[in-house]
Every structure is written in structure tokens, then in C-alpha cells.
Amino acid sequence: MVTSTQPPTKISLAEWNKNYDFTGQTFVVTGGTGVLGGEMASALAALGAQIAIIGRNVEAGEKLCQSIGKGGGKSEIFGCDVLDPEAVRSSATRIKERFGRVDGLINAAGGNNAKATTNDQQKFFDLPPEALQWIFNLNVAGTITPCQVFGRIMAEQGSGAILNVTSMAASRPLTRVSAYSAAKAAITNFTQWLAVHLAQEYSPNIRVNAIAPGFFLGKQNRPLLIDSETGELTPRGKQIISHTPMGRFGDPKDLLGAVLWLMSPAASFVTGAVIPIDGGFGAFGGV
């Protein structure tokens, strides 16, 4: 137990709010053209950060940059596939030339593949290897490669913050999505490993954390959770809601409190943490 004879720290609201002033800082967001990545990029830009969006869909990235610009934010799209190390290194060079430094990295690229999902017609024993490999490549390699490239820049600077996106499926393996659950579990493990490695080998001012979203509606999972004809919950959707104490799916904005905190100086003593954002799904035992 830690005890202290020092009086409590006095802090004003204005001083505390400085933690969330990202003016002059540059953040890289992979998968920034996706729903969740785009929300995180927009929030950071609204608080003064310069955003470098990495994604394959340049057109979608340009639309996001226009949206950010209308709110007074600064952003730029760098067309890049996170599975191509040379392309990521090239993007990093251009980003550093454009913005001078990289203060933070958010790895929001990821997803599942329907071809690797079990159902009545597709049994686990018959899942195609290429679909399984695709999931591991996108989620695991798609996180590790940007960490290598942009982590090197942070190591040279002696500071930086990395945020990975895992899932509640990492700690509570979900039926039907074996490869996705396993890949997200790998990201959780890698996040903790990298947090220790960078702090011990390079600088304690480089932090690595992750968020673990619960169920958020997106293009990939909407057909599994919402009936397209009736708009009602599917049986799987009902099962999920019944196991989520808050009784709803997450909204992308629900991520922002944790994201902004973990990327800010307010979390300066937080590294290797995985923060669940799941409406209580992981805490519920089912009864």
C-alpha cells in the first residue's frame, strides 16, 4: 500500500483541460476511413491535432478530410495498405516530411471475413485457409507493421503514444468467429508486450495501450445483428443485447472518452492497459 504525507494536488479545470489540447501534435490513424477510425480521427482533429489518415480507400479518406476541414480541423489522406510494409514506410516518410513528427498512432484497421465464419452450411473443419490467413494478416500484421514503422519514429523522438484496437472477443471468445477472436487476442498480447519493450528499451515516455470495443454496428456485422427486411434484431442480435447490461449496441462516440484519455498526458502513467468499452458485456456472467 502506498501512503503519502503530501497534501492533495490542487488542479484547476483550465489546467486539466490542457491535457486534451492536441494543438501542434500529429496523429496517424490506420483504418481511418472506417466508421470507428473516422470517429477517432475527427475527435482528435477537433481538439487541434493534425491527422494523417492511412487507408486503401483514398476517395473515402478525401471525404473524411473534407468533413474534418469543415470543422476547422487539419487532416490528410495517405493511400496505403497496412499489409504492405514498404508502402507503410513510404507513407511514414511522407507524413514526417509533411508534419515533422509523429506523436501518436491509432491502429484502427481490422475486421472479420464472412468466409471464415461458421454457420449451418459452413463448418469449422471446412473453413478455407486463405480466409483464416486474411483475418490474421489484417488484424495482427496490420497492427504490428505500423507499430514497427511509426514506433521507430517514436523511439528516435523518445516519446509517443500508440493505441491498438482489440475486441471483447479477445477475452470472451465469440461463437462462429474463431479466427477473429484469436486474432484480436493476439493484438491484446502484443499490446502488452510492446508496452514493456518500448518503455524498457527506448523510453518510458512511449506508451502503448488498447481499447476493447464490445458490439458496435458496422457494415460487416450489421447483417448478422439486424434483419435487413424488418429492421428487427436477428436471433444473434437479441442474444448479444440480452448479455449487454446496458441493453444496446455501442455508438462510435462511446469510444472517444477512453481514446482521448489514452492519447493524452492525462494517461501519462498508463501503459499496457486494455480498456473494455462494451456496455458491461464482459462483466456479465449470464445470470
Keywords:
287 residues; alpha/beta; 7-stranded parallel sheet; 9 helices; 41% helix; globular
Overview of the molecule:
With 287 residues, the protein is an alpha/beta fold. 41% of the residues lie in helices and 14% in strands. It is built from nine helices and seven strands. Strands 3-2-1-4-5-6-7 form a seven-stranded parallel β-sheet, with helices on both faces.
Question: Outline of this structure?
Answer:
The chain is an alpha/beta fold. The protein has helices spanning 13-17, 35-46, 58-70, 85-99, 129-157, 178-201, 222-225, 235-242, 256-263, and strands at 26-30, 50-55, 74-79, 104-107, 160-165, 206-213, 274-277.
Please render the helix and strand layout as text.
Blueprint (H helix, E strand, L loop, with lengths): L12 H5 L8 E5 L4 H12 L3 E6 L2 H13 L3 E6 L5 H15 L4 E4 L21 H29 L2 E6 L12 H24 L4 E8 L8 H4 L9 H8 L13 H8 L10 E4 L10
Parallel strand pairs: 1-2, 1-4, 2-3, 4-5, 5-6, 6-7
Helix pairs in contact: 4-5, 5-6
How many alpha or pi helices?
9
Shape: globular
Summarize the biggest pleated sheet: 7 strands, parallel
Q: Write down the overall mean pLDDT.
A: 95
Number of strands: 7
- CA-CA gap between termini: 34 Å
| SSE ordering | HEHEHEHEHEHEHHHE
Walk across the major sheet and give the strand order: 3-2-1-4-5-6-7
| Low-confidence parts | none
Q: Roughly what percent helix? A: 40-55%
Provide the gyration radius in Å: 20 Å
Look at the helices and sheets and give the structural class.
alpha/beta
Strand content range? 5-15%
